[in-house]
Amino acid sequence: MCHLADGVTVSGGEPLLQTKALIAFFEELKKYGIGTAIDTSGMFSLTEDVKRLINLTDLFLLDIKHIVPAKSKELVGFSNELEIEFAKYLSDNNKPMWIRQVLIPGYTDSEEDLLKLKSFLSTLKTVEKVELLPYHDLGKFKWEKLGLKYPLDDTRTATQEDFERAKKILRNIILWNNMYICRVFFSYI
Q: What residue spans define the domains of the chain?
């Protein structure tokens, strides 16, 4: 397990939009023994620069928007193939990752989809933690202030009951080496 005491986590926006700058930054951090982490959607092609940055990174906080490609496209405007490929690459290259998904009622919370997520996560050998985060509408006012229609306007926020149900479905994710995942977090606020 990677412990990032004295470490730097880069988040965004999307950090991988600044790959060349991050390579230079992380190379400097490594000279001083400082741990590195990236919070990313992973929705990027695995270019040589991205692979170089992956090599310099100790931990990835990877968002999986939706496990089903078509539903991911409906939810965020993009299919999930790149983020799935990214997760597999991290696993194949022994890069620790924490997987996060927002639990959105009516979008990411069906039993079928959660079982697909569980099945996929079970194929990854470097997942250290899984976090389900509750959907909330705290940013809705920003859309309204800009005169835009909030895309999830008719979506209710996730409840404790939603989390308990998801927790039962995702419990005991088995990793490739038959070890139970270290922790599954349900961060209900």
A: 7-186
Predicted TM-score of the model (pTM) = 0.85
* Residue 132 contacts residue 107 (beta carbons within 8 Å): no
Which DSSP state fits 18? Answer: G
Q: If 0-12 CB within 10 Å is exposed, 13-18 middle and 19+ buried, where does residue 52 land?
A: middle
Determine the Cα–Cα distance for residues 188 and 160; give it in Å rounded to an integer: 7
Q: What's the mean pLDDT in 80-107?
A: 95
The pLDDT, as a whole number, for residue 107 is 93
Stretch 123-137: mean pLDDT, rounded? Answer: 88
The position carrying tokens 């919370």 is 109
Burial label, 25 (beta-carbon count in 10 A; 0-12, 13-18, 19+): middle
Q: Domain 7-186 sits in which CATH superfamily? A: Aldolase class I (3.20.20.70)
Range with lowest mean pLDDT among 43-52, 56-65, 124-133: 124-133
Strand partners, 101: 132
> Residue 31 class from Cβ within 10 Å (0-12 exposed, 13-18 middle, 19+ buried)?
exposed
